[in-house]
Amino acid sequence: MPLPRLITLIVGLIVILSLSLWLIQYLNQLSWQLSYFGFFGNILLLLLILLIGSLIAAFVYYVMVIQAGEGRSSRRPKRITPSEIPVVKSEAASSTLQAVRQQVSQIQDEVTRQALLSKSREIEANLARGEIQVVVFGTGSAGKTSLINAVIGRMVGKVDAPMGTTTVGETYCLRLKGLERKILITDTPGILEAGVAGTEREQLARGLATEADLLLFVVDNDLRRSEYEPLKALAEIGKRSILVLNKTDLYTDEDKEVILARLRERVRGFISTNDVVAISANPQSVELEGGEMVKPESEILPLLRRMAAILRAEGEDLIADNILLQSLRLGEEARKLIDAQRRRQADKIVDRFQWIGAGVVSMTPLPVVDLLATAAVNAQMVVEIGRVYGCELNMERGRELALSLAKTIGGLGIVKGALQLLSTALQLNIGTFVIGRAIQGVTAAYLTRIAGKSFIEFFRNDQDWGDGGMTEVVQRQFQLNKRDEFVKAFVQEAIAKVVKPLADKTAEILEEDERAR
Fold first, then answer.
1. Spatial CA neighbour of 273 closest among 314, 245, 304
2. Beta strand pairing call for 276-278 and 293-294
3. How far is it, in rounded angstroms, from Cα 360 to Cα 36?
4. What's the average model confidence in pLDDT over 215-226?
5. Distance (Å, rounded) from C-alpha 438 to C-alpha 444?
6. Which end of the chain is more exposed for a tag (fewer CB within 10 A), N or C?
7. Beta-strand (E) ranges in 283-362?
8. What pTM value is reported for the model?
9. Contact, 466 vs 405, CB < 8 A?
10. How far apart are CA 121 and CA 119, in angstroms?
11. CB atoms within 10 A of CB 169
12. Dist. CA 494–CA 479, nearest whole Å
């Protein structure tokens, strides 16, 4: 019993007992007075006793039963009916689509932007229509088309003409008794086919499979690894799947049960045992004793029963889940495109400021190359990178970030490592004074690049350096930018943008000095 209710009960009983003691004394006196009324006085006394007993019983009932029931009902979570679940998910999908459109509006490439907007409108139209998408997926030899023909032949309801082409699969519109929504069942090109054309058809098939509300994955034997991997991948993104063992007429009953047992064991954890079914969509003809060839009827009922059970029980939820999944996938695609777009813009900023920094150091050489010498340049670089990622920083904040990263670079010994790396790479036959200044300028450009690339990661992660902090990000960028192929390309660009202009400027100064003499 909860403590508040227990206290209420004890206090109430104490009050009642106190009143009862007082009433006993009062009734003792009252009974003496009522004795003058004889029989009627005794009845009146009995009624008073019953009234007091009723009050006590009512109080105990209220505390023990009514309040207990209210407490349980208040603690009981609100039950969401099945009809409410798809509504919530549909609303989530609509909200996601609105957010996607806002993301898409930031994409600069017109063709890409229009393609994503068209896709969002298609998802929205699917949400409004509410058709159930059933996709048949598997290798070309598994009998997918035969399965669809058998389903169409046995399905109770209307079958419309096929839509689409054979290169991307044909889609039929079906009606199932007890289900108001239309069912679109699509045959996809076979996977694992050879050649470039086969690879392209497989990509189309995988694309259709990711848009299915219900996936029928068809095999004709035990799962191969090449079949298991796409099936597992589709299950991991949330595809409701039925694994269909076709062509069972080719096996004995014992062999069929062995294969089914293996299939159920292989997909345990992401496909239910009940969702592994055996059929024979297009059984081979059988020769009778008299030589007559007889075509057996297809054994498709186990699949039809399972499909019907799933679609009737989960159809609404499957549609909502799939629409939400497609919306999230479209949002992720838009996010990646925007991230790549921002990355290109930020890389251009880093490329520009690294050579500005090189020019500053080359023209005003210092005893030791240090990012502190180009703090103003790097502060402006940080501000501009932040602006690309939608973060407005003032120069003071930019300078603070730049100085903090410069100290980290210095503390990690990257300045010394960069000097050694670039001194070796810059094998120039130029005067000692010029090459010294050139090395300092090129090193400044290199360090500015590492700083800029580090800040790109910082802003990409919503101004967070991650679990490893600034140190880990800087070290990772240094490792990425010290690879031989990059250093060679960087040095060639540095020679054109820093060393040669510096050599030309030095030669010009020497000529002027010579003429002055």
1. 245
2. unpaired
3. 122
4. 92
5. 10
6. C
7. 286-287, 293-294
8. 0.60
9. no
10. 5
11. 24
12. 19
